[in-house]
Amino acid sequence: TLLTDFGTKEHYVASMKGVILSINPQCILIDITHQVNPHDIQEGAFILANTYSYFPKGTIHLSVVDPGVGGGRRAILLVTQNYFFVGPDNGLFTLIAQREKVKQVVVLTKRKYFLPKVSMTFHGRDIFAPVAAHLSLGIKPNVFGYEIGSLEELEFGKPIIKERKLLGEILHIDTFGNLVSNIDEEKLFRFIQSRPIVIRAGREAIHGLKKGYWEGKKGELIALLGSGGFLEVSVREGNAQKMLGVKRGDTIKIQVSG
User: Fold this and answer.
1) Long-range own/partner contacts, residues 225-228 (CB < 8 A, 24 or more apart)
2) In whole angstroms, how far apart are CA 198 and each of 32, 174, 219, 230, 254?
3) Read out DSSP for 176-234?
């Protein structure tokens, strides 16, 4: 799979695919997305974490959101119990390391598996793509470099209970303007215990949860559990982010009512 912030207008994604297919013409390539907001490592990490596990075991996930390309950050191959991840060690694989059993982290140093000429600005094409392709041919992970014991990690806020309120934050805003929080189903139901609740986002209050978008009226602000298992604030056939004027990192509060 490929996930990047490159967009599809330029030559970048096609160049990476060309490198992979030149090394392994039998490789099946699936685009997760190339529309990650430019340089937004956290968004890339969230999208990857909500996608990778739906692919067959053994899939190689090539992910490049890399504002520090050419600098001091390491190029790595992350090997988990079920998958392989190739990309920059800049926090992009934070959520993967939390959800998967990590077996190896290999820093990519063996230049024989890179393109002959490595650009300082396009490691996706010159390092990550050829390594992923060689890996798909059965080259063992430890051949690509040396092993390390840790990854760079991003700080993802965790929900807390304070003054009898469950406080979370907006973790992701999707294409439809839905506000995906960091409050998962387990934490939510453990807190509310079947009691009526009020969810506050921006300056608005939402009473109770809907089972799906269909339960809301057109233009109505609603709260529900989204497909990723997180509390989500949405507008039926509308855009919650535009309606509320909020941004990623803003607080979502849940309080038991009555």
Assistant:
1) 225/185, 225/188, 226/178, 226/180, 228/50, 228/180
2) 35, 23, 19, 16, 6
3) T--EEEEEEHHHHHHHHTT--EEEEETTEEEES-BSSGGGSPTT-EEEEE-TTSEEEEE
pLDDT digit string, tens, across residues 136-168? 999 999 999 999 999 999 999 899 999 899 999
Q: Give the span between the Cα atoms of 159 and 188, in whole angstroms.
A: 10
The whole-angstrom separation of Cα 198 and Cα 26 is 53
pTM of whole model > 0.90? yes
**Cβ(88)–Cβ(123) below 8 Å:** yes
The encoded tokens of residue 94 equal 């934070």
* Paired residues of 61 in beta bridges: 85
Q: How many CB atoms lie within 10 A of CB 150?
A: 9
